[in-house]
Amino acid sequence: MKLISQHLIKDSNMKLLYNAIYNNSGISRAQLAKMSNLSKTTVSTLIDELITRGFVYDSGVTDSNNVGRKPNSLHVKPSSYYVVVFSWLENNINAYLIDITGATTFEQHLKLQDEDTYVSLSRKCMDEDILALVSRNQILGVCVVVSAMIDSLNEEIYSTTLSLPKSEGVNLIASLKSTFFEFPVAVLEDTACSAYAEKAYARVTEPDFAFINFSRGIGATLFIRNQMVGKADGASTQFGHYSVDPNGILCVCGNRGCLEAMMGESALAKRVKAEGGSPALNRLPAITYATLGNAALYGDAVSQKVIKDFAHFLAHALANLISIVNPNLIILGGKSILLGNLFLDEINKTLQSTGFRKMVDSVTVEYSKLDSNAFINGAMKYFFDVHYSFTKDSSNSFFIG
Ligand SMILES: [Zn+2]
Question: 209 CA to middle of ligand 1, Å?
Answer without folding.
Answer: 24
